Amino acid sequence: MSTRRTPLPDTGAASGAGVLESRLVGSTREEFARDVWARRPLLTRRASDFTDLFSADAVDELISRRGLRTPFLRVAKEGATLPDSSFTSSGGVGATIGDQLDDTALWRSFAGGSTLVLQALQRTWAPVGALTSALASELGHPVQANAYVTPPQNRGFDDHYDVHDVFVLQIEGTKRWIVHEPVHRDPLRDQPWNEYASAISAAAGEPAFLDTVLEPGDVLYLPRGWLHAAEAQGAVSIHLTLGVHTWTRHSLAEQLVASALDLLRDEPEMRASLPLGADGPGDELAAVRERLAAALAEADPAPRFHRARRGQARPEPLGPLAQLAAVDTQAPDSPVRLRGALEARLEGTRLTTRVGWLDFSEEELPRVKSLLEGEVHAAGDLGAGLAERLLRAGVLVPVGP
Q1: What is the CATH number of domain 2-56+102-244?
Q2: How high is the pLDDT of residue 133?
Q3: Contacts by 11-19 with C-beta closer than 8 Å and gap 24+?
């Protein structure tokens, strides 16, 4: 087990440093990638001041005033998840949708020892959304965020493992974490912990790999598969879990096989029927194996891979009114930039993004390439027609004062 102790840094990261090294791990990205990533837990004491990200006030705001619906919140007690109907109700006149959070029911449940889990915070709380977007860009894997709010001396979930890597950021209060080595290393998304419940129960009775109390500002990194259970201490505990949904070699193999099968769809002999009376692969299997192997060698999984990545997250939020104002008031000196988190890729003369694709002329390509470098441009430098087209497409956004 590795522990890093660093002074609590300013929330403005060191120049050139990403959020991984400036706020989460207390080391360089290269050191983390080489020594820690997907290999072992890492505990970093006083990694950062997280008061700008989330707080008890944020919890109350989200639950009582935002009109959140399931599945943006779930409730757990004594290792079990409570039914949605126990904490949801209609929002009243003009908002009669029946699965909105009921703050009174949630208060009673929380006071009775339940843990509140605010899910997908990257969609509902802007500071957390900005952090997860930046971290996903640095890691090359999609990131989501949940907040766990646990009353004193209570445990939300029993020993289990996650099928994604996590960074645990302690926000308020303290929480004891007990971590054991995996019983099933590097689980895939369809290999949940309950399939190994008996092995996990046995492992939880063995000496822990790590038994520690997280305090505000501490960060714990756990690769997928590592067993853990956590319990609040003498006060309410709030922590953020950043879940990193890692791409694996298995998922890349799935993309490769799917791309090969796409090639085989175009071959008449592969679309041909098996002989009458066939009750198994028979003599056809050898020929199919040979052609499949050839298709795998020919297939390019990159387009399918990037299409899947684009579908795993959303771009930077865009305000329709601000965007319309940017189009209507565009001047040659109006500053514009590429919208964040677009997963933009230029393939030939086509730009593909999370908001669609656009084709460009050869003359426009140098200006489009300069946009992809992330710099701010004056609309006039791009050409009024190109700037307006990209603003209307939601690819460019105005730069505020």
Answers
A1: 2.60.120.650
A2: 94
A3: 11/48, 11/49, 11/52, 18/134, 18/135, 18/138, 19/131, 19/134, 19/135, 19/138
